Amino acid sequence: MNRRRAPRLEGAALRKLTLIDPETLDDLPPEDDRDDEDAPEHTEEEAADIVTAQRFRADYDRGAREARAALRRR
């Protein structure tokens, strides 16, 4: 039987989980439930930074997938 394991938390995701104190969850501000149409506009520079960060993340994720695949092939 081939069982799949739950994804392993690494890096920022793990740090984020370990830094949350359950007692402070009630003190968090409510989530922003505005529609995208009501969201504030970004300047061109902010939009460019967001796109750059998204591309970097996509490249990082792609590299990580390729590295895991290479390790599995060994």
Automatic annotation (TrEMBL):
Residues 14-52 are annotated as: Disordered. This is Uncharacterized protein. Residues 23-48 have a biased composition (Acidic residues).
